[in-house]
Design goal:
The radius of gyration is 21 Å and the shape is globular. It has one domain. The protein contains 12 helices and 2 strands; from the N terminus they run H-H-H-H-H-H-H-H-E-E-H-H-H-H. Helix content is 77%, strand content 2%. A two-stranded antiparallel ribbon has the order 1-2. The longest helix has 41 residues. It is an all-alpha fold.
Length: 330
């Protein structure tokens, strides 16, 4: 992810910066433990107040219409996400077929959502692309572009929402309305900076963690931004539909964007519990906990578990093809 690249750059800068200090690893671990403890406490507190039998009843009451619409939106979202690696193919010029690239992207995304970025977004991409004959350096560039594309749209949407319609956060949260607007301005500024570099920079090649990265052309950067913003919008729309439009779309989008970052920070596979805790905490006054949790459980089944089942089948299918290809080469 872009944050990981930024961390790597800091480490390789002169003197290593703050990350070279002997106290930094301990401070980082302590901050992580504190954050996870707060998340755990929040989950326990929320779980105690939930009548799970009513949540199950709400799930049973879903009509076919919202579920079918949510399923169609999920398929569209996965299709959009899979196009990120096609941008990588265009940028690197590798020769894998479109079906192969889409297949690898689909498997990686499904595993990424359910098992975390290291297993899915990174591990699966390297494993499957290597089986299909791509060089590790090319895979790294494709992976970097895909992750960058994903977070570009996030920054644009989050920045715009936080600036224009910041969500009312709980009083005990450190960041308030003003802080949220400042964060939104920073995110939008980062997106604008990236676009300016892609359109205007004379230096197109950069070294990142020992790998050479080529800055995309301006039009390709706009395509990255548009596809990613569309995908994040589709994801939020799935939850909006499953909530049966009982909460305004801008509120659902804002909470989804906040929950996405909370899940990344928590390092919990699939953001399990984190997504639910953020939604219940921020939207409890707009809908009942029962309705929120039923919608989120349906969302996980449609957007996480069903694609994962298909991805597992495809993974072994691609693995078999890859091994057969290696045998043929031998």
């Amino acid at each position: 992810m872009p944050a990981e690249h930024a961390t790597a750059a800091a480490r390789t800068s002169a003197g290593g910066g703050i990350t070279s200090k002997p106290w930094w690893p301990k401070a980082k671990r302590a901050a992580t433990v504190i954050f996870l403890s707060l998340v755990a406490w929040l989950l326990v507190e929320q779980a105690r107040e939930i009548e799970w039998s009513k949540v199950i009843d709400s799930l049973r009451d879903y009509r076919a219409g919202p579920l079918l619409i949510a399923g169609a939106l999920a398929v569209t979202s996965y299709a959009v996400y899979c196009s990120y690696d096609l941008i990588g193919r265009h940028q690197t010029g590798h020769s894998l077929r479109t079906g192969q690239v889409v297949g690898v992207s689909f498997v990686s995304y499904a595993f990424n959502l359910n098992m975390g970025a290291l297993v899915g977004g990174v591990g699966m991409r390297y494993k499957l692309y290597l089986r299909l004959g791509l060089d590790a350096a090319v895979i790294t560039e494709v992976l970097g572009l895909s992750m960058l594309t994903n977070w570009l749209g996030y920054m644009l949407l989050a920045g715009g929402v936080f600036l224009i319609r910041p969500l009312e956060l709980p009083a005990e949260w450190i960041i308030g309305g003003v802080g949220l607007r400042v964060l939104g301005g920073v995110l939008v500024a980062l997106v604008i900076t990236y676009l300016v570099l892609c359109f205007r920079a004379t230096r197109r090649k950069w070294s990142l963690r020992g790998h050479e990265v080529t800055l995309p052309a301006g039009r390709l950067a706009l395509l990255q931004l548009g596809l990613s913003a569309l995908n994040w919008t589709l994801i939020a729309t799935i939850v909006y539909v499953l909530l049966q439009q009982k909460i305004g779309f801008s509120a659902v989008l804002s909470v989804m964007l906040i929950a996405a970052v909370a899940g990344v920070i928590a390092h919990v596979p699939a953001g399990l519990g984190v997504l639910e805790a953020v939604f219940v905490t921020l939207l409890a006054q707009s809908a009942s906990r029962t309705e929120l949790l039923a919608a989120l459980l349906a969302y996980r089944a449609i957007y996480y578990l069903a694609p994962l089942a298909l991805a597992v089948v495809y993974y072994f299918f691609v693995g078999k093809l890859g091994r057969e290809g290696d045998s043929a080469k031998g």
